[in-house]
Structures are given as structure tokens and as C-alpha cells.
């Protein structure tokens, strides 16, 4: 590394290892799944408490802090005058529900073989702490900054991103922003998103008494159960499904799969799909119930959308993905949510038409929402600054990439996602991915990411924005 600032950056990161681990542990300890809105807590008490904790940590680091009515907060290196251009990072303090399959308390950070385990260590509380320490370096170094730096801390990324909508409506946007909420090296494009529910008609006098599964629309569920009005000895369990006696002669079927992020479904096993296959294998259900189950079976049959006629690949992004995230039954109506990430050569209208054809009269679509694909040219100056910094620090020769995940970047006029995940780092058996059980992050890679972020923010000072 030839940059004369590197020795100071490296020393700062190494000296703060224990402090960084301490503060990640403090932030992860605050459960922050979206909840019921309250005064000053528009996304519930948990996200507000996590925001308060992050700002408390930032103040301890000597940074200026601000809380924007509980929607979003930030720390910054110093005053930002009206109309002044500034740089920003943005991470989020909210998390997806803990789900099932954890080996220990999800909100107590554990360290095992160099990995941090806990809900949010990688998505996105660990990276949030890194940004605060990057700003601490910039402030403590005394370097005069052409562009002040603000570390934004969101509270609603995992569901609707209304936090950043609020920010955009009330505050000037940064000249350039990166979000450490994805993979390295630099993601300069994100697929579009298409979400909704496949809803059954009211199933009168049904055999399926209850069907529940999943913890979030944007996560592949690893557990689900259904209760059916059939005796246990009349059911043959299929792969991944177990049975137990329920009340009044009913049977409870449980599916055990493997969870993961909706944008990266390869290697996951959807527990809802296991139950649907089992029910159809045993011919369980009225005619209307089985017709609805056959629609769900097509949804779950292939995560590339080919089974429901929406497969798409534009050569710019990875191919389309679609998963069923949650299922619930109430008053005889079953609702299966889906999460689709799509490239540029299709659109929600085409996909809606295809899904409606699959549904026929057995089901219908409700609560459809969408967002368009997002892309910024890889040769733009700020992006080149980030990719060059990453390659110099790591010794790699990577290029920007596009992905299926959706981040805050699409909400800003000039922004990308920038680490700290590494797709080439194998996740050990005791750890899990973002949104999964035993969510893990390699601590050495987090420390390396801090160094990359500091150097990148310094080099961005020389870019005309």
C-alpha cells in the first residue's frame, strides 16, 4: 500500500479492535425488529431503542449526533453548512426477526473461531459501528475535509425504507453516499423488486385447519407447520416433514428447511414448499384446497421463476429470483407472500399477467408492490475511487457488480453499496448468512473493511462531486 496515510489508518483500526467488538455487542443486544408505531418511534420501540444506542455510541466517540424524530439519525465529523456538499454512509439499526434454529440467544454476540455470531453482526449493525469508527478517525486525525462526512443510521431498511424517504423529504441529500449493506467490492446496480401475496378463496369446510410459516417476506423460511383434519396414520411424511397427533384426531405437520436471504436463495430449502409437497403427495384437502396448493407448488418449484412463467435474464444482472416468504391462514383464507428480484428485461405488468394465469380460479393476487431496477455506470469517478481503494488494500483485481438485493443506495441520486460481505469466504457450519439463524461475520474482514472505508472516504475528498 503506497498511500502515505495507510500506516495511520492501519494503526487506528488495530488499536480499536476491542472497542469495536464491544460496541457491536452493545448494539446487537438491542432487539430491533419493526413493531407498532409509537410517539417518537414510527417503526416501533425496538428500532428506536437501537437508534438511541447507536447515537449514544457515536457521542462517546466524540461525534456530533442528531435524531430526526425517530425516523433516522446520524453522526457526523463536524458542522455541515446549508448548501454544503457532503459525503455520507448509511447503515441500518433495524433487523429481521430472529427466526428459528439459533444455537444461542440471537442478541448476545458470541465469538467463535474468529467469527461474530448474532442477529445484525453483518446486517447491518456491525457495519454501522464500522462507519462510526471511520468518522472517529477522520475527526481525530485533524484532516481538513473538503466534504464533511455524515454516517446515517436508518431504522426501517428491512421492510419499507420509509426512514430514508423521510430523510429525503426533510434534509438535503449527500453528493455521494455508500451503504455497507452488501458484498464487496462495489455493487453499482440492484435488481427491481416485485412483491405480493397469492391468496386463496375462502375455503369452506376445509381439511386444512391452519397453515403458518416464515418470519419475513424477504427470507426463505426454515420452519412451517400446518394442521389438517386427517388422522396421523393416514399420512405418509415426505422429505423434511414430520407429523404429530393434534387435537380431536387432527395431525400437525412440520416442515424443516434451511433459511437464507430472498435475494440469494441458492442452497436454501423452503419449509413451506416441503409441506405443500407433502399435502399434495397425500391428496389432502378439498378440491378447492388442492387447487390452491398446486398454485403454491408451482411458485416454490423453482427459484428462477421458470415454473410460473416469469424467468428472465438480461445479461447485466443475475437472473430473476422468486421465493415464498411467509404463509398464514385466517378465517379460512390462506395467504402466501412472495419476494421477486428481477432484471431489466421484464416488468411487474408481465409478471402479474403470468402469475394470474397460474392462479386461474384457484387463487388471486393481492397487495402487489414493485420497485424498478437501479444502475449507475461503473466508470463514474466515485465508484472508481471505491473499487480502486478496495483492490489496493486487498491486492485483488475486482470489478463492480450488480445484485438482487435491495439496499438504501437506490434511494439516493448518487450511491452504491460497498461491502463488507465477501462471497468468496465460506461460511462455517456453526454460522449462518444474513437473515438466517446464527448470522455470522468474520471479525478480521470487518477490521479490514474499516480500513477500506477510512481510506475511501479520504480519497473521495479529491473527487469533484
UniProtKB/TrEMBL annotation:
What GO biological process terms does the UniProt entry carry, in alphabetical order? L-arginine biosynthetic process; proteolysis
Give the signal peptide range.
Answer: none
What is any Pfam family matched here? Peptidase_M20
Q: Which Enzyme Commission numbers does its entry carry? A: 3.4.13.-
Required co-factor?
Zn(2+)
Question: Which major enzyme category is it?
Answer: hydrolase
UniProt keyword annotations, A-Z:
Dipeptidase, Hydrolase, Metal-binding, Metalloprotease, Protease, Zinc
Gene Ontology MF terms in the entry: acetylornithine deacetylase activity; dipeptidase activity; metallopeptidase activity; zinc ion binding
Q: What superkingdom heads the lineage?
A: Bacteria
Q: Does the keyword DNA-binding apply?
A: no
The UniProt entry, under InterPro entries, shows: Bact_exopeptidase_dim_dom (IPR036264), M20A_pepV-rel (IPR010964), Peptidase_M20 (IPR002933), Peptidase_M20A (IPR050072)
Q: Which PANTHER family match?
A: ACETYLORNITHINE DEACETYLASE, N-ACETYL-L-CITRULLINE DEACETYLASE
Q: Which family does it belong to?
A: Belongs to the peptidase M20A family.
Output this protein's name.
Answer: Sapep family Mn(2+)-dependent dipeptidase
Q: What is the protein's species of origin?
A: Candidatus Gemmiger avistercoris
Amino acid at each position: 500500500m503506497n498511500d502515505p496515510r495507510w500506516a495511520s489508518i492501519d494503526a487506528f483500526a488495530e488499536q480499536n479492535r476491542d472497542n469495536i467488538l464491544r460496541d457491536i455487542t452493545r448494539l446487537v443486544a438491542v432487539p430491533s425488529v419493526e413493531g407498532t408505531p409509537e410517539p417518537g418511534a414510527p417503526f416501533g420501540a425496538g428500532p428506536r431503542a437501537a437508534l438511541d444506542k447507536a447515537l449514544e455510541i457515536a457521542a462517546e466517540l466524540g461525534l456530533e449526533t442528531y435524531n430526526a424524530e425517530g425516523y433516522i439519525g446520524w453522526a457526523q465529523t463536524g458542522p455541515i453548512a446549508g448548501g454544503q456538499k457532503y459525503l455520507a454512509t448509511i447503515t441500518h439499526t433495524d433487523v429481521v426477526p430472529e427466526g428459528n434454529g439459533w444455537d444461542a440467544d440471537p442478541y448476545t454476540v458470541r465469538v467463535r473461531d474468529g467469527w461474530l455470531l448474532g442477529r445484525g453482526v453483518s446486517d447491518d449493525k456491525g457495519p454501522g459501528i464500522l462507519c462510526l469508527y471511520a468518522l472517529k478517525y477522520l475527526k481525530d486525525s485533524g484532516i481538513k475535509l473538503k466534504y464533511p462526512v455524515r454516517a446515517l443510521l436508518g431504522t426501517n431498511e428491512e421492510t419499507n425504507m420509509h426512514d430514508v424517504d423521510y430523510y429525503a423529504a426533510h434534509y438535503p441529500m449527500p453528493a455521494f453516499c455508500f451503504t455497507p449493506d452488501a458484498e464487496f467490492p462495489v455493487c453499482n446496480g440492484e435488481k427491481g423488486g416485485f412483491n405480493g401475496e397469492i391468496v386463496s378463496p375462502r375455503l369452506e369446510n376445509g381439511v386444512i385447519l391452519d397453515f403458518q410459516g416464515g418470519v419475513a417476506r424477504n427470507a426463505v423460511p426454515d420452519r412451517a407447520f400446518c394442521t389438517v383434519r386427517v388422522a396421523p396414520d393416514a399420512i405418509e411424511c415426505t422429505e423434511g416433514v414430520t407429523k404429530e397427533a393434534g387435537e380431536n384426531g387432527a395431525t400437525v405437520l412440520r416442515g424443516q428447511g434451511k433459511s437464507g436471504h430472498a435475494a440469494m436463495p441458492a442452497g436454501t430449502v423452503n419449509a413451506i414448499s416441503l409441506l405443500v409437497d407433502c399435502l399434495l403427495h397425500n391428496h389432502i384437502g378439498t378440491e378447492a384446497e388442492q387447487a390452491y396448493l398446486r398454485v403454491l407448488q408451482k411458485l416454490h418449484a423453482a427459484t428462477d421463476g421458470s415454473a410460473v412463467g416469469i424467468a428472465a435474464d438480461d445479461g447485466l444482472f443475475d437472473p430473476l429470483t422468486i421465493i415464498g416468504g411467509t404463509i398464514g391462514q385466517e378465517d379460512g383464507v390462506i395467504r402466501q407472500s412472495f419476494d421477486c428480484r428481477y432484471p431489466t428485461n421484464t416488468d411487474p405488468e408481465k409478471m402479474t399477467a403470468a402469475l394470474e394465469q397460474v392462479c386461474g380460479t384457484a387463487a388471486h393476487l393481492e397487495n402487489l408492490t414493485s420497485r424498478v431496477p437501479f444502475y449507475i455506470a461503473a466508470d463514474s469517478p466515485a465508484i472508481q475511487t471505491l473499487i480502486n481503494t478496495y483492490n489496493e488494500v486487498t491486492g485483488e483485481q475486482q470489478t463492480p457488480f450488480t445484485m438482487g438485493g435491495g439496499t438504501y443506495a437506490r434511494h439516493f441520486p448518487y450511491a452504491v453499496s460497498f461491502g463488507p460481505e465477501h462471497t468468496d469466504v465460506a461460511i462455517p457450519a456453526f454460522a449462518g448468512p444474513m437473515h438466517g439463524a446464527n448470522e455470522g461475520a468474520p471479525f478480521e474482514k470487518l477490521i479490514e473493511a474499516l480500513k477500506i472505508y477510512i481510506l475511501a472516504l479520504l480519497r473521495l475528498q479529491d473527487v469533484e462531486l
